[in-house]
């Protein structure tokens, strides 16, 4: 029977990557190309700008034709005014995570959550007046073929918010153009 390597031998063979971005050429999914986005951040948001190995690169300008992936989150204004703020934010988080997890094998979701993009997610948080409006929006999205999660708080059975899966902004922005930013 062959002897197992000692912990000290294993640790000596471990070589940490030189940069937190060294996973940039790792495939997230077999169907994705190595580089799923040409967008580069000047530094990852989770690292200080002085962190070694974070090279400064030019960020995209408004003039380029990049169609950014975005997730829309829509909250109910009546609940924002009546519930503790943390409770309403939590509802939005539930819907967002559920929408992403429910579509975890979708190409846009894989790109949105890829190592290259994880620190530069785009979300737009909007509001509707109340329950009727959130239910109408959910129906409109379903009729338009837009995948989303309408979060129903249990056991009260209250529709509190909804979130889309990530989409290119140009594909979904028209469904939300009449809604106000949540403030």
Task: Break the fold down into its secondary structure elements and pairings.
Layout: H1 7-13, E1 69-76, H2 77-82, H3 85-102, H4 107-112, E2 123-128, H5 131-143, E3 148-153, E4 158-164, E5 167-168, H6 169-176, E6 180-181
Parallel strand pairs: 1-2
Antiparallel strand pairs: 1-4, 1-5, 2-6, 3-4
Task: Describe the overall structure.
The protein is 32% helix and 17% strand. The chain is an alpha+beta fold and 183 residues long. The termini are far apart.
CATH fold description of the domain at 71-181:
Bit1
- Helix-strand sequence: HEHHHEHEEEHE
Number of helical segments? 6
CATH superfamily of the domain at 71-181: Bit1
Question: What is the general shape?
Answer: globular
Span between termini:
66 Å
Q: What's the β-strand tally?
A: 6
CATH class of the domain at 71-181: Alpha Beta
Radius of gyration: 21 Å
Work out the helicity level: 25-40%
* Low-pLDDT runs: 10-65
Structural class: alpha+beta
- Strand fraction equals 15-25%
Q: Please tell me the CATH architecture of the domain at 71-181 by its name.
A: 3-Layer(aba) Sandwich
**Nearest-integer average pLDDT:** 78
* Biggest sheet overview: 6 strands, mixed
